[in-house]
Here is the input.
Amino acid sequence: MFCACHSPLKRVVILTAAFLALSWLAAQSPAWAQTPTSYAPAGWDAGVTLAEAPDTNPDPNIVEVTITARLAEVEVAPGRKVRAWTYNGSLPGPLIRAQVGNRLIVHFTNELKEPTTIHWHGLRVPIEMDGVPGLSQDPVKQGESFTYDLVLRDASLFWYHPHVMSAQQVGYGLYGALLVEDPADGVGVADQLTLVLSDIGFDSKGTLEDSESGGSAGMVFGREGSYVLVNGRTMPTIRARAGAPQRWRIVNAAKSRFFYLDLDGQDFLVIGQDGGFQERATTSNILLVTPGERMDVIVTPRGAPGSRLTLRAMLYNRGYGSIEYRSVEDVLTISFTPEPALAKVALPTITRAITPPRAEGATPVAMVLTLPPQEAGHSEFRINGVPYWKAKPLLAALGETQLWTVKNDTDWDHPFHLHGFFFMAVDERGVPLAPLVWKDTVNVPMKTTARLLVTFDERPGTWMLHCHILDHADGGLMGTVQVGPVAAEHTHPAPKKP
Ligand SMILES: [Cu+2]
Here is the structure.
């Protein structure tokens, strides 16, 4: 067969054209395509290093790791040791690092006495990989294994934790970060941290606090551990040159604690949240991260060379017990090098085209969250009048868009989480709140109503929805949505009453 490129002259023309095209592309290539400049001193992040799960698969498109749940003694501050429940012996569990589009294989083994699972918070997985016993898999008992095998469809920070006795298991240390990166995301900030915020409670002997402490009242308040942790350490220090930008990927993995972050009034440039980049970046001098949520921010810490700056958790009223007799907590110290402050560094403009679900024609679904007065010394949270163990699933057809109205009639905030799907918050008229962003966890403040648009795509299954204050979830504030062909009406399998 004759090919035009067999003619020497034509070959030269084609090669020249290709060369010119490549040169033009190189000249057009934006700043982010070049290696971004690091301004941080060597070892700047040693105080917050996360253990990483080694990828044992040579295929560049597959990340294959081994995760084992087991007891281990960890040191959260000098001389402060606790025998925690861990993944691979570290607190938090190892950071799993992958690229968007990768296949992730996790060989999970449980060496704890208690049954457990791994739920992949925020990931759009098939139901078989969602980690909820009774709905998607059997609990993994002591000595047993389970292989999670899924495709990472979205770039963002995600996290993993058990879905069995969640308040206890997460509170005792079972959580880790999953960072799904997009090498072409264009952020161009070299100095990056993944920050897992959490807390833990234990006594002077290093024994974990009873996860049922305070009984029903403890459940209603949402129990917080007294040690505030950043990547498993109390009040770590990072080093930085003043005026140099850093990208922080933050997840709140605490079972109840809200983090209301203040960097001495300096700005957080928020570029993304749970499901990836926002439509456009926003600036705020305080950052609320409720349990389960993630934030992707650029900070440019400023201060005199050689001085220190503290990231603090301010008081945030999420209900009775959250601000009374409480004080601001120090979270992390930034220690500036003696170098002169960097002059203003231009930051990238991050935008993303997001098509919101259509509110017109969406099926309205109403949920009312209540906390009836105690009965027989016992409290329970309810959705539409029933706690989880008496609830029937909501129903949704494949491809259906629903408009969920979540009315919080209680005196506590509830970070509302849906498994397996992103949603978008909208106003009373169904118009998405600006800027557009995909969420899987959104705080519904006390006595307010959230409106969430969600499209249930091609993945059938029975998916959890619940408050991510895990004491509240265990106290009844959970439900399910059954997506897909609906058989006979059914109730939940063997409810677990706390
Ligand atoms: Cu709640």
